[in-house]
C-alpha cells in the first residue's frame, strides 16, 4: 500500500469513527501498514467495524489481514511442484512457497479453483497434518489458523519440515506461546 492508499484507508476509517487525519497520522499508519494490500486492509477494517466496538488500531488491521490470508490458504487447493523439480528439494520448496504466497495474496494459481469463503477443503486433512495439529495446543483463534497455514512450508529458523511443528532451537520440544517462528510465518506468506 502506498501513502495515497493509506490516506484512502484512513478516510474509510474516519467515515465511521470520525477520527482526525493529518500528515502525522498518514505517515505513522503507513509505516505500520504499508506492507499490506489495500483491499485486504479495507476488508479487515470492515470486519472490525462490523464485529467490534473497540477503537480501531493498526494491530486490528494487521490481525485481520493475517486472518484473511490464512483463510485463503485454508480454502485453496495447492498443486504439487512440477515433476522437473522432484530431484531438487530447494527448488521445489521455493516453488511451493511462491505458490502459497500467491494464494495468500488472493491471486489465482494454476487455474485451480478456491473454495467459496467460509468453506474448507473436502475430506479430512492428511494424517501427518492431523498428527501435528493434535500435538499442538487446542487454540481455535487466529493463532491456530496461522499455525495451520504455516505448517505448509518448512521453517527456515528451526528447520522443521512441512507438516511438522516448529521446535525450540536445538531440541525436539514443540514451540509454545506463538503459532510458529516468525521466519516460517513469513515464508508461508502470512506476514
Largest sheet: none
Overall morphology: elongated
Determine the fraction of residues in helical runs and give it as a percent range: 40-55%
Uncertain stretches: 126-140
Question: Structurally, how many domains make up the residues?
Answer: 2
| Mean pLDDT over the residues | 81
Using only C-alpha atoms, the radius of gyration works out to: 18 Å
| Topology pattern, helix = H, strand = E | HHHHHHHH
Task: Give the number of DSSP strands.
Answer: 0
**Terminal residue distance:** 14 Å
Number of helices: 8
How much strand content do the residues show? under 5%
* Structural class by sheet pairing and helices: mainly alpha
Protein name: DNA-binding phage zinc finger domain-containing protein
Pfam families: Phage_zn_bind_8 (PF24623)
Region (Disordered): 109-140
Domain DNA-binding phage zinc finger: 143-189
Description of the molecule:
This is DNA-binding phage zinc finger domain-containing protein. Pfam families: Phage_zn_bind_8. About 8% of the residues have low confidence. 51% of the residues lie in helices and 0% in strands. It folds into two domains: 73 residues; 105 residues, no CATH class. It has eight helices and no strands. It has 191 residues and is mainly α.
Amino acid at each position: 500500500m502506498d501513502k495515497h492508499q493509506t490516506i484512502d484507508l484512513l478516510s474509510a476509517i474516519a467515515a465511521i469513527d470520525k477520527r482526525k487525519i493529518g500528515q502525522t497520522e498518514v505517515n505513522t499508519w503507513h509505516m505500520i501498514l504499508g506492507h499490506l494490500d489495500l483491499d485486504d486492509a479495507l476488508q479487515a477494517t470492515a470486519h472490525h467495524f462490523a464485529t467490534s466496538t473497540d477503537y480501531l488500531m493498526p494491530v486490528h488491521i494487521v490481525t485481520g489481514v493475517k486472518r484473511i490470508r490464512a483463510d485463503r490458504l485454508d480454502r485453496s487447493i495447492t498443486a504439487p511442484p512440477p515433476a522437473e523439480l522432484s530431484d531438487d528439494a530447494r527448488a521445489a520448496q521455493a516453488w511451493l512457497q511462491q505458490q502459497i504466497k500467491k494464494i495468500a495474496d488472493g491471486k489465482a494459481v494454476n487455474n485451480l479453483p478456491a473454495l467459496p469463503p467460509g468453506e474448507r477443503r473436502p475430506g479430512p486433512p492428511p494424517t501427518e497434518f492431523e498428527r501435528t495439529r493434535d500435538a499442538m495446543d487446542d487454540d481455535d483463534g487466529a493463532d491456530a489458523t496461522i499455525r495451520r497455514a504455516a505448517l505448509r512450508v518448512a521453517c527456515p529458523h528451526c528447520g522443521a519440515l512441512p507438516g511438522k511443528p516448529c521446535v525450540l532451537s536445538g531440541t525436539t520440544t514443540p514451540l509454545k506461546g506463538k503459532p510458529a517462528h516468525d521466519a516460517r510465518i513469513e515464508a508461508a506468506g502470512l506476514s
